[in-house]
Amino acid sequence: MNEHFNSFLEENTCASFACLDEQGHPYCFTCFYAVDLKEGLLFFKSSQDSNHAGYLLNNRAVAGTILPDKLNKLTIKGIQLEGTVLAFDDIRTKSASLHYYKTHPMAVAMPGEIWTVLLRRIKYTDSTLGFGKKIIWESPVN
Known about the structure:
The protein is an alpha+beta fold. It has helices spanning 3-11, 51-58, 96-103; strands at 14-20, 26-36, 41-46, 61-66, 77-85, 113-126, 134-138.
């Protein structure tokens, strides 16, 4: 990936995602996340009885945004991402709990499952690198 947005992803904790409901309407949800930058994976925890969990089981495509945990209106930074939620039995989900609970140890006490997003595309905006500077990354894995 890229050193600039790698550190951004590791420093922040909350993402907003959009998925599609059964009628194809957008549905948004927000959650804490963890990342495995080497493998291009993002993890979040959610219970299977949530609305978005049902939607994701039917259509695994997601898009999302990550803003800094502490906003600075003078230095615009943020990520827009696209990805695919992996099935729970996918080999790439094997380390999901390890990554998630290492980042959010208190979440062990909360009910829910760890979901894994295979990142397909990231657009990182960072005005500290130049006004409107954008860095695009696309996964070599389809």
